[in-house]
Design a protein that fits this description.
With 386 residues, the protein is mainly beta. It folds into 2 domains: 18-176, no CATH class; 197-384, Porin, CATH 2.40.160. 13% of the residues lie in helices and 47% in strands. The chain has 5 helices and 19 strands. β7 and β8 form a beta hairpin. The longest helix is centred in the middle third of the chain and has 15 residues, at 162-176.
Length: 386
Protein backbone atom coordinates (compact mmCIF):
# COMPACT_ATOMS: atom_id res chain seq x y z
CA UNK A 1 0.00 0.00 0.00
CA UNK A 2 2.82 2.39 0.91
CA UNK A 3 4.69 1.63 -2.37
CA UNK A 4 1.51 2.44 -4.37
CA UNK A 5 1.28 5.91 -2.80
CA UNK A 6 4.92 6.63 -3.68
CA UNK A 7 4.39 5.39 -7.25
CA UNK A 8 1.36 7.62 -7.84
CA UNK A 9 3.20 10.63 -6.41
CA UNK A 10 6.17 10.13 -8.76
CA UNK A 11 3.81 9.63 -11.69
CA UNK A 12 1.95 12.84 -10.89
CA UNK A 13 5.21 14.82 -10.75
CA UNK A 14 6.42 13.28 -14.02
CA UNK A 15 3.31 14.11 -16.07
CA UNK A 16 2.61 17.36 -14.13
CA UNK A 17 -0.80 16.38 -12.70
CA UNK A 18 -1.90 18.55 -9.73
CA UNK A 19 -1.84 16.58 -6.46
CA UNK A 20 -4.60 18.66 -4.91
CA UNK A 21 -8.12 18.79 -6.34
CA UNK A 22 -9.58 22.12 -7.30
CA UNK A 23 -12.41 23.71 -5.30
CA UNK A 24 -15.67 24.92 -6.82
CA UNK A 25 -17.29 28.32 -6.25
CA UNK A 26 -20.74 29.27 -7.61
CA UNK A 27 -21.29 33.02 -7.73
CA UNK A 28 -24.55 34.91 -7.34
CA UNK A 29 -24.57 35.36 -11.15
CA UNK A 30 -24.49 31.59 -11.57
CA UNK A 31 -20.89 31.36 -12.76
CA UNK A 32 -18.84 28.35 -11.64
CA UNK A 33 -15.18 28.93 -10.75
CA UNK A 34 -12.56 26.18 -10.47
CA UNK A 35 -10.02 27.60 -8.01
CA UNK A 36 -7.80 26.75 -5.06
CA UNK A 37 -9.42 28.02 -1.85
CA UNK A 38 -6.98 29.03 0.88
CA UNK A 39 -7.67 26.81 3.91
CA UNK A 40 -6.68 29.38 6.53
CA UNK A 41 -9.26 30.93 8.85
CA UNK A 42 -7.33 34.22 8.71
CA UNK A 43 -7.77 34.30 4.93
CA UNK A 44 -11.08 32.48 4.61
CA UNK A 45 -13.78 32.84 7.26
CA UNK A 46 -17.45 33.70 7.57
CA UNK A 47 -16.94 37.19 6.14
CA UNK A 48 -14.60 36.58 3.22
CA UNK A 49 -13.41 33.86 0.84
CA UNK A 50 -9.76 33.94 -0.31
CA UNK A 51 -8.58 31.79 -3.22
CA UNK A 52 -5.94 31.40 -5.93
CA UNK A 53 -6.57 30.98 -9.61
CA UNK A 54 -3.62 28.59 -9.91
CA UNK A 55 -2.02 26.52 -7.20
CA UNK A 56 1.42 28.05 -7.76
CA UNK A 57 0.06 31.61 -7.89
CA UNK A 58 1.35 34.12 -5.30
CA UNK A 59 -1.60 36.49 -5.64
CA UNK A 60 -4.91 35.99 -3.82
CA UNK A 61 -8.42 36.85 -4.86
CA UNK A 62 -11.21 37.68 -2.38
CA UNK A 63 -14.97 37.22 -2.65
CA UNK A 64 -17.56 38.47 -0.16
CA UNK A 65 -20.63 36.51 1.00
CA UNK A 66 -22.87 38.85 -1.01
CA UNK A 67 -21.09 37.71 -4.22
CA UNK A 68 -21.31 33.92 -3.72
CA UNK A 69 -24.10 31.35 -3.61
CA UNK A 70 -22.09 28.41 -2.28
CA UNK A 71 -18.72 26.71 -2.47
CA UNK A 72 -17.11 23.36 -1.61
CA UNK A 73 -13.92 23.18 0.43
CA UNK A 74 -13.62 20.28 2.86
CA UNK A 75 -17.37 20.62 3.32
CA UNK A 76 -20.41 22.34 1.85
CA UNK A 77 -20.70 26.08 2.48
CA UNK A 78 -23.31 28.58 1.43
CA UNK A 79 -23.85 32.31 1.69
CA UNK A 80 -26.61 32.77 4.26
CA UNK A 81 -28.57 35.91 5.18
CA UNK A 82 -28.45 36.30 8.98
CA UNK A 83 -31.41 37.84 10.82
CA UNK A 84 -30.25 40.22 13.56
CA UNK A 85 -32.45 42.10 15.99
CA UNK A 86 -31.63 45.78 16.24
CA UNK A 87 -29.02 45.71 13.45
CA UNK A 88 -28.85 45.35 9.66
CA UNK A 89 -29.09 41.84 8.26
CA UNK A 90 -25.88 40.54 6.68
CA UNK A 91 -24.63 37.63 4.56
CA UNK A 92 -22.10 35.16 6.03
CA UNK A 93 -20.33 32.06 4.73
CA UNK A 94 -21.63 29.15 6.81
CA UNK A 95 -20.96 25.41 6.67
CA UNK A 96 -23.93 23.06 6.68
CA UNK A 97 -24.05 20.71 9.66
CA UNK A 98 -27.72 19.63 9.53
CA UNK A 99 -29.81 20.72 6.55
CA UNK A 100 -32.93 18.58 6.95
CA UNK A 101 -35.83 18.97 9.35
CA UNK A 102 -37.73 21.81 10.96
CA UNK A 103 -34.46 23.29 12.25
CA UNK A 104 -31.12 23.40 10.37
CA UNK A 105 -27.67 23.96 11.89
CA UNK A 106 -24.78 25.95 10.43
CA UNK A 107 -21.24 26.59 11.57
CA UNK A 108 -19.19 29.71 10.91
CA UNK A 109 -15.60 30.72 11.67
CA UNK A 110 -14.61 34.24 12.72
CA UNK A 111 -11.32 36.01 11.92
CA UNK A 112 -9.65 34.47 15.00
CA UNK A 113 -10.68 30.93 14.09
CA UNK A 114 -13.37 30.66 16.78
CA UNK A 115 -16.57 28.81 15.85
CA UNK A 116 -20.01 30.42 15.73
CA UNK A 117 -23.21 28.42 15.32
CA UNK A 118 -26.47 29.38 13.65
CA UNK A 119 -29.90 27.78 13.28
CA UNK A 120 -32.45 28.14 10.50
CA UNK A 121 -36.03 28.04 11.73
CA UNK A 122 -39.15 29.47 10.11
CA UNK A 123 -37.03 30.74 7.16
CA UNK A 124 -34.82 32.83 9.45
CA UNK A 125 -31.16 32.16 10.27
CA UNK A 126 -30.25 33.24 13.82
CA UNK A 127 -26.97 33.04 15.70
CA UNK A 128 -26.97 30.70 18.70
CA UNK A 129 -26.65 32.74 21.89
CA UNK A 130 -23.49 31.42 23.52
CA UNK A 131 -23.80 33.46 26.72
CA UNK A 132 -27.49 32.65 27.29
CA UNK A 133 -27.73 29.17 25.82
CA UNK A 134 -30.45 28.04 28.24
CA UNK A 135 -32.70 30.98 27.33
CA UNK A 136 -32.00 30.39 23.62
CA UNK A 137 -33.11 26.73 23.85
CA UNK A 138 -36.20 27.67 25.84
CA UNK A 139 -37.16 30.24 23.19
CA UNK A 140 -36.70 28.14 20.03
CA UNK A 141 -37.09 24.47 21.03
CA UNK A 142 -39.74 24.11 23.75
CA UNK A 143 -42.62 24.46 21.27
CA UNK A 144 -42.39 20.71 20.72
CA UNK A 145 -44.88 19.27 23.27
CA UNK A 146 -42.81 16.15 24.02
CA UNK A 147 -39.44 17.89 24.24
CA UNK A 148 -37.46 16.50 27.20
CA UNK A 149 -36.29 19.65 29.00
CA UNK A 150 -34.32 17.72 31.59
CA UNK A 151 -32.15 16.33 28.77
CA UNK A 152 -30.80 19.67 27.51
CA UNK A 153 -31.57 22.19 30.25
CA UNK A 154 -29.96 23.94 31.90
CA UNK A 155 -27.28 24.40 29.22
CA UNK A 156 -23.92 25.84 30.25
CA UNK A 157 -21.45 27.73 28.09
CA UNK A 158 -19.42 24.50 27.79
CA UNK A 159 -22.33 23.05 25.76
CA UNK A 160 -21.72 25.60 23.00
CA UNK A 161 -20.16 22.99 20.74
CA UNK A 162 -21.09 21.35 17.46
CA UNK A 163 -21.84 17.81 18.66
CA UNK A 164 -24.13 19.06 21.45
CA UNK A 165 -26.08 21.38 19.11
CA UNK A 166 -26.34 18.69 16.43
CA UNK A 167 -27.74 16.30 19.02
CA UNK A 168 -30.19 18.96 20.22
CA UNK A 169 -31.45 19.69 16.70
CA UNK A 170 -31.63 16.03 15.70
CA UNK A 171 -33.67 15.34 18.83
CA UNK A 172 -35.93 18.34 18.17
CA UNK A 173 -36.55 17.39 14.53
CA UNK A 174 -37.42 13.86 15.60
CA UNK A 175 -39.67 15.27 18.32
CA UNK A 176 -41.47 17.38 15.71
CA UNK A 177 -41.79 14.60 13.10
CA UNK A 178 -40.56 11.22 14.31
CA UNK A 179 -41.60 9.33 11.16
CA UNK A 180 -39.64 11.54 8.75
CA UNK A 181 -36.58 12.48 10.82
CA UNK A 182 -35.02 9.75 12.98
CA UNK A 183 -33.02 10.83 15.99
CA UNK A 184 -29.25 10.44 15.53
CA UNK A 185 -27.11 10.71 18.64
CA UNK A 186 -24.15 13.05 18.14
CA UNK A 187 -23.36 13.89 21.74
CA UNK A 188 -22.65 11.58 24.70
CA UNK A 189 -24.08 13.16 27.81
CA UNK A 190 -21.72 12.92 30.78
CA UNK A 191 -22.96 10.86 33.67
CA UNK A 192 -24.14 13.15 36.44
CA UNK A 193 -21.72 13.32 39.32
CA UNK A 194 -23.05 11.93 42.54
CA UNK A 195 -23.93 14.83 44.76
CA UNK A 196 -23.76 14.02 48.44
CA UNK A 197 -26.60 15.95 50.04
CA UNK A 198 -26.10 17.32 53.55
CA UNK A 199 -29.18 17.96 55.69
CA UNK A 200 -29.78 19.33 59.17
CA UNK A 201 -32.87 19.08 61.32
CA UNK A 202 -34.46 18.59 64.71
CA UNK A 203 -35.39 15.35 66.45
CA UNK A 204 -37.41 14.37 69.53
CA UNK A 205 -38.81 11.21 71.04
CA UNK A 206 -39.87 9.31 74.09
CA UNK A 207 -40.02 5.74 75.32
CA UNK A 208 -39.27 3.29 78.11
CA UNK A 209 -36.00 1.91 79.40
CA UNK A 210 -34.17 -0.24 81.89
CA UNK A 211 -31.19 1.09 83.79
CA UNK A 212 -30.10 -1.36 86.48
CA UNK A 213 -27.36 -3.67 87.67
CA UNK A 214 -27.64 -7.38 87.02
CA UNK A 215 -25.72 -10.07 88.85
CA UNK A 216 -26.00 -13.81 88.48
CA UNK A 217 -23.45 -14.65 91.19
CA UNK A 218 -25.96 -14.90 94.06
CA UNK A 219 -29.68 -14.79 94.55
CA UNK A 220 -29.25 -11.90 96.97
CA UNK A 221 -27.50 -9.78 94.34
CA UNK A 222 -30.24 -10.58 91.89
CA UNK A 223 -32.87 -9.39 94.38
CA UNK A 224 -30.98 -6.19 95.10
CA UNK A 225 -29.76 -5.15 91.71
CA UNK A 226 -32.85 -6.04 89.72
CA UNK A 227 -33.98 -9.01 87.71
CA UNK A 228 -33.03 -7.53 84.37
CA UNK A 229 -36.63 -7.41 83.15
CA UNK A 230 -37.37 -4.28 81.08
CA UNK A 231 -38.45 -1.59 83.52
CA UNK A 232 -41.40 0.44 82.17
CA UNK A 233 -40.01 3.86 83.12
CA UNK A 234 -40.03 7.00 81.02
CA UNK A 235 -37.12 8.14 78.86
CA UNK A 236 -37.12 11.38 76.84
CA UNK A 237 -34.74 12.80 74.20
CA UNK A 238 -34.58 15.82 71.93
CA UNK A 239 -32.02 17.78 69.92
CA UNK A 240 -30.48 18.22 66.49
CA UNK A 241 -29.06 15.96 63.79
CA UNK A 242 -27.03 16.10 60.59
CA UNK A 243 -27.04 13.53 57.82
CA UNK A 244 -25.21 12.97 54.54
CA UNK A 245 -27.21 11.32 51.76
CA UNK A 246 -25.07 9.21 49.38
CA UNK A 247 -27.34 8.64 46.40
CA UNK A 248 -30.90 7.55 47.08
CA UNK A 249 -30.37 4.46 49.24
CA UNK A 250 -27.56 4.98 51.75
CA UNK A 251 -27.01 7.78 54.28
CA UNK A 252 -25.08 8.45 57.50
CA UNK A 253 -26.52 10.28 60.51
CA UNK A 254 -24.95 12.00 63.51
CA UNK A 255 -27.20 13.19 66.34
CA UNK A 256 -26.74 15.34 69.42
CA UNK A 257 -29.63 14.79 71.84
CA UNK A 258 -30.39 15.77 75.41
CA UNK A 259 -31.42 12.57 77.17
CA UNK A 260 -33.42 12.12 80.37
CA UNK A 261 -33.80 8.70 81.97
CA UNK A 262 -35.89 7.55 84.90
CA UNK A 263 -35.39 3.94 86.01
CA UNK A 264 -36.36 1.69 88.85
CA UNK A 265 -35.32 -1.89 89.51
CA UNK A 266 -38.07 -4.47 89.56
CA UNK A 267 -37.59 -5.17 93.27
CA UNK A 268 -37.88 -1.47 94.09
CA UNK A 269 -34.41 -1.33 95.65
CA UNK A 270 -32.86 1.14 93.20
CA UNK A 271 -34.31 4.42 91.87
CA UNK A 272 -32.36 6.45 89.32
CA UNK A 273 -32.71 9.76 87.48
CA UNK A 274 -30.15 10.55 84.85
CA UNK A 275 -29.59 13.34 82.30
CA UNK A 276 -26.89 13.51 79.65
CA UNK A 277 -25.93 13.97 76.03
CA UNK A 278 -26.78 11.12 73.66
CA UNK A 279 -24.52 11.01 70.56
CA UNK A 280 -25.49 8.22 68.14
CA UNK A 281 -23.73 7.57 64.81
CA UNK A 282 -26.05 5.70 62.43
CA UNK A 283 -25.92 4.01 59.01
CA UNK A 284 -29.31 4.06 57.27
CA UNK A 285 -30.73 2.28 54.23
CA UNK A 286 -33.86 3.38 52.38
CA UNK A 287 -36.20 0.71 51.06
CA UNK A 288 -38.40 1.28 47.98
CA UNK A 289 -36.64 4.64 47.67
CA UNK A 290 -38.37 5.58 44.39
CA UNK A 291 -41.50 6.38 46.37
CA UNK A 292 -41.67 9.56 48.43
CA UNK A 293 -43.24 7.69 51.34
CA UNK A 294 -41.02 4.70 52.03
CA UNK A 295 -39.60 2.60 54.88
CA UNK A 296 -36.01 2.44 56.12
CA UNK A 297 -33.80 0.44 58.48
CA UNK A 298 -30.71 1.59 60.37
CA UNK A 299 -28.01 0.51 62.80
CA UNK A 300 -25.08 2.16 64.49
CA UNK A 301 -23.05 3.00 67.58
CA UNK A 302 -24.44 4.77 70.62
CA UNK A 303 -22.66 6.87 73.23
CA UNK A 304 -23.92 8.76 76.28
CA UNK A 305 -22.11 11.46 78.27
CA UNK A 306 -23.63 12.11 81.68
CA UNK A 307 -24.47 15.62 82.87
CA UNK A 308 -26.31 14.93 86.11
CA UNK A 309 -27.58 11.94 88.06
CA UNK A 310 -29.48 11.11 91.23
CA UNK A 311 -30.12 7.69 92.68
CA UNK A 312 -31.23 5.99 95.90
CA UNK A 313 -30.59 2.49 97.19
CA UNK A 314 -32.87 0.81 99.72
CA UNK A 315 -31.55 -2.74 100.21
CA UNK A 316 -33.50 -5.28 102.28
CA UNK A 317 -32.60 -5.47 105.98
CA UNK A 318 -29.45 -7.45 106.71
CA UNK A 319 -28.28 -7.34 103.09
CA UNK A 320 -24.58 -6.79 102.50
CA UNK A 321 -23.68 -4.54 99.54
CA UNK A 322 -20.82 -6.23 97.73
CA UNK A 323 -19.69 -3.18 95.74
CA UNK A 324 -20.61 0.51 95.71
CA UNK A 325 -23.27 1.69 93.30
CA UNK A 326 -22.20 4.50 90.93
CA UNK A 327 -23.49 6.17 87.78
CA UNK A 328 -21.06 6.06 84.88
CA UNK A 329 -20.40 9.45 83.19
CA UNK A 330 -19.70 7.83 79.80
CA UNK A 331 -21.16 4.71 78.19
CA UNK A 332 -20.98 3.07 74.76
CA UNK A 333 -23.25 0.65 72.97
CA UNK A 334 -25.13 -0.20 69.80
CA UNK A 335 -28.55 0.52 68.35
CA UNK A 336 -30.90 -0.73 65.64
CA UNK A 337 -34.06 0.80 64.30
CA UNK A 338 -36.50 1.21 61.50
CA UNK A 339 -39.42 3.32 60.43
CA UNK A 340 -40.90 5.29 57.60
CA UNK A 341 -40.51 8.61 55.80
CA UNK A 342 -43.89 10.31 55.48
CA UNK A 343 -44.33 12.64 52.52
CA UNK A 344 -45.87 16.00 53.46
CA UNK A 345 -46.66 19.21 51.59
CA UNK A 346 -43.37 20.76 52.76
CA UNK A 347 -40.70 18.26 53.84
CA UNK A 348 -40.74 14.55 54.73
CA UNK A 349 -41.25 13.66 58.40
CA UNK A 350 -39.30 10.68 59.70
CA UNK A 351 -40.95 8.35 62.21
CA UNK A 352 -38.59 5.87 63.84
CA UNK A 353 -38.63 3.04 66.38
CA UNK A 354 -35.20 2.63 68.00
CA UNK A 355 -33.71 0.09 70.40
CA UNK A 356 -30.32 0.83 71.97
CA UNK A 357 -28.19 -1.27 74.29
CA UNK A 358 -25.14 0.11 76.13
CA UNK A 359 -22.67 -2.72 76.68
CA UNK A 360 -19.72 -0.80 78.14
CA UNK A 361 -19.67 1.81 80.91
CA UNK A 362 -16.42 3.49 81.86
CA UNK A 363 -16.99 3.49 85.65
CA UNK A 364 -18.71 0.11 85.80
CA UNK A 365 -16.34 -2.37 84.22
CA UNK A 366 -17.67 -5.91 84.21
CA UNK A 367 -16.42 -7.89 87.21
CA UNK A 368 -17.02 -11.62 86.93
CA UNK A 369 -20.68 -12.23 86.26
CA UNK A 370 -21.71 -8.78 87.52
CA UNK A 371 -23.11 -6.82 84.55
CA UNK A 372 -24.32 -3.30 83.93
CA UNK A 373 -27.21 -3.03 81.53
CA UNK A 374 -28.84 -0.01 79.92
CA UNK A 375 -31.53 -0.91 77.39
CA UNK A 376 -33.69 1.77 75.80
CA UNK A 377 -36.70 1.67 73.45
CA UNK A 378 -37.96 4.93 71.96
CA UNK A 379 -40.33 6.27 69.34
CA UNK A 380 -38.79 9.30 67.65
CA UNK A 381 -39.74 11.89 65.03
CA UNK A 382 -37.36 13.96 62.87
CA UNK A 383 -37.96 17.03 60.72
CA UNK A 384 -35.38 18.50 58.29
CA UNK A 385 -34.66 22.23 58.46
CA UNK A 386 -31.98 22.50 55.75
Amino acid sequence: MKSNIILWTLLAIFINIPLFAQDKIVTKKGDTLKVYIIKSFKATNSKKLSYKIAQESTSEEVLLPSQVQYFNANGNYESVLISSEGSENQYLFLQKAIDKGKVHLYKGIDEQGNPDFFIRKDDKVIIVDKLNLTAFIEKFFLDCPNFAKERYLPAKIENYRQDYLMDLISYYNNCSDSQTYPYIQYYSFPKPKRKDEIHFGVKAGGGIQEYAYRSFSTTANLNLYGTGVFNPKMSLAGGIYANVQYGKIFSTHLELLFLYRNAKSTDGAINMRFSGLNIPFILEFNLFNKKKTHPFINAGLNSVVGIGSKYTVTPPSGFQILRPLSMSPVSFGSLIGGGIYLDTANKPIKIEARFSYDFFEVNNITIGSDKMRNANFMIMASYPLL
